[in-house]
Amino acid sequence: MAEVILQAKHLGISFGGLKAVDDFNIEIRAGELMGLIGPNGAGKTTVFNLLTGVYTPTEGAFFLCGEKMNGKKTYQVVQAGIARTFQNIRLFKSMTVIENVMVAYGMSMKYKMPGALFRSRTYWREEAEYREKAMELLKIFGLEDKADFVADNLPYGQQRKLEIARALATGMKLLLLDEPAAGMNPTETADLLRCINVIREQFGIAILLIEHDMSLVMKICERIVVIDYGVTIATGLPEEIASNQRVITAYLGADEEEEGA
Amino acid sequence: MTVKVPKEKGKAIILNLIGVLILFLILVILNESGALSSYVSGVLMVCGIAIIMASSLNITVGYLGQIALGGCGFMAIGAYTAALITKAMEAGNILVGAGVPNTLRFLIGTIAGGILAAIFGILVGIPALRLRGDYLAIITLGFGEIIRVIIQNLKFAGGKGFSEGQAGQALVGINRLADIYVVFWIVVISVALLYTFIRSRYGRAIIAIRDDDIAAGASGLNTTFYKVLAFTVSAFFAGIAGGIFAHYIGSLNAATFGWLKSTEYVIMVVFGGMGSLTGSILAAIVLSALPELLRSFSEYRMLAYSVALVLVMIFKPTGLLGTYEFSLYRVLNRIFHEKKAGKKQEVK
Ligand SMILES: Nc1ncnc2c1ncn2[C@@H]1O[C@H](COP(=O)(O)OP(=O)(O)O)[C@@H](O)[C@H]1O
Ligand SMILES: [Mg+2]
């Protein structure tokens, strides 16, 4: 069996009296695509915020490849190998598409301040090298023609894809995708699925995917965790989840409403 | 693997060098032919100082997007440090006399001033940059004033000492070592360094943090580090500008470095365009030369500033140049290869 990439044990956080996430457990292995689903406000995004050091868990712990990550700052978690995208797209709006990706490559570049100020050989080499790498990433997402566009001017679907490209540039072991298909039309969604498959093949990374759209999750995820009101109500294979009574109750009547959101 | 500077970039660098040399030649010709009165060269000096102040402040205010109002506090640190160092060297007969250019002392003092200002930049930046927006503006303004008042009371800086509870006299008798040619090159090198800084992974990180600091953290950037870095870079060059100022003016009075003066430099940045070094340079020249040209209306300078600023904010909220950077290479390219340049334009 593949190496365990992420392990969360009894992870929890409260805001005031509200337990947004309670006793969250998960184990993701290399190459695995895991789904995290649940109704609106269930605490899915909060799980991501916990796993990326945005919030410090009030209970439990989580480990990346066995290394404890609690209490680390976001950038430290990212440098250790967890990258994410955001439910509400967060791009560097004034920067160009390729520069957005270059920002994330920044931590891999080795040239130091003198090299930057006096434009050393390493500066020129790395800038060119990583620009090329960024271009390769953009190609996966069909964004290579838009490399010099200002990110804010991209259509919505492409902004989502750029966010994933930027996350990939951090060289992560685990990728967290927060509703990447939200607001996309069926064609865009299909294209997104193609991209996700390509990055799984090329990078062999583990992915944890939050998605509203049950049918999409059922189609691509190998295993699924369902949370409701911060509590894990089911974990298992897609077929098991689809027939789970608690999941059906939690989602009852929710299916139709999602489309408009 | 051989690494070469990309052809286009190499050409641009050479062109810029030629452009700067031509400017320098004009300066030399004007100066040597006596066309440059001491008054005019004084105005040029003030412009040079303003260029360094505004373009370095742009790193914090424009690129990082944090309004910092304490710029003159750092300028004061640089000015006093540089002045005290050259004075001490002269008193101790170090690097003085025939065969040793005066410029050497000036450079040593000024760079030391920049370094001390940068150290204070780190010390002030770490607590201050936890705050944002108005709060940061207020606290940096406060720090600037504290620095000024402390200097005003330091005995060795012309003050009467803290126990006297009174501001002292000016620090006088500073040799006017700031040679216009040397200052020209300091300005050029400062702007060039600020440019290479902002066009590196460091600058990219700073701009990213301005755009979205949560996403910047999620891209692996230590946002606190880069914020303090930007602030420190601004402080360093403010210190350099202070060193030049001290050796141009010949005597220092801490009151010169008040918050009003800091605000003037922030106005230059906003006026020229937050995120455009070209804009800062232009605004620095216009806003420091203009009041000299309208000398008789000099009392109305702040009024003119305010009106100009309000007009710019109404008609061009991003400042005169926005984030546009002048490039000699691009301009020449546009002139000689009309079509090629036109194509590139469409991208943005
Ligand atoms: N910083 C916070 N302060 C207070 N409550 C929060 C905070 N972050 C999330 N919550 C609450 O946690 C719950 C789960 O939110 P979220 O994780 O965004 O849900 P989901 O992503 O599943 O739709 C919500 O009730 C939300 O109001
Ligand atoms: Mg959410």
Write the layout of secondary structure elements.
The complex is a heterodimer of chains A (261) and B (348).
Chain A: E1 4-15, E2 18-29, E3 33-37, H1 44-51, E4 59-64, E5 67-68, H2 74-80, E6 82-84, H3 97-105, H4 113-117, H5 121-140, H6 156-168, E7 174-178, H7 186-203, E8 206-210, H8 214-220, E9 223-228, E10 231-236, H9 238-242, H10 245-251, H11 254-258
Parallel strand pairs in A: 3-8, 3-9, 6-7, 7-8
Antiparallel strand pairs in A: 1-2, 1-4, 4-5, 9-10
Chain B: H1 7-32, H2 38-63, H3 71-91, H4 102-128, H5 133-153, H6 180-198, H7 201-211, H8 213-218, H9 223-249, H10 259-272, H11 277-293, H12 301-315, H13 328-336, H14 338-345
Helix pairs in contact in B: 2-6, 2-9, 2-10, 2-11, 3-4, 3-5, 3-9, 4-9, 7-9, 10-11, 10-12, 13-14
The structure holds adenosine-5'-diphosphate (ADP) and magnesium ion.
Descriptive notes:
- The complex is a heterodimer of chains A (about 260) and B (about 350).
- Chain A has 11 helices and 10 strands.
- With about 260 residues, chain A is an alpha/beta fold.
- Chain A has a single domain, classed as 3-Layer(aba) Sandwich (Rossmann fold).
- In chain A, the strands form 2 sheets. Chain A has a 6-stranded mixed β-sheet, with helices on both faces. Chain A has a 4-stranded antiparallel β-sheet with strand order 2-1-4-5, with helices on one face.
- The longest helix of chain A is centred in the middle third of the chain and has 20 residues, at about 120-140.
- Helix content of chain B is about 70%, strand content about 0%.
- Chain B is built from 14 helices and no strands.
- In chain B, helix 2 packs antiparallel against helix 11 (about 275-295) and helix 10 (about 260-270) runs parallel beside helix 12 (about 300-315).
- Chain B is globular and about 55 Å long.
- The two termini of chain B are about 35 Å apart.
- Classes of the chains: A alpha/beta (about 260), B mainly alpha (about 350).
- The interface between A and B is large, with 41 and 32 residues.
- The structure holds adenosine-5'-diphosphate and magnesium ion.
- The site of magnesium ion (MG) has 3 residues of chain A, from helix 1.
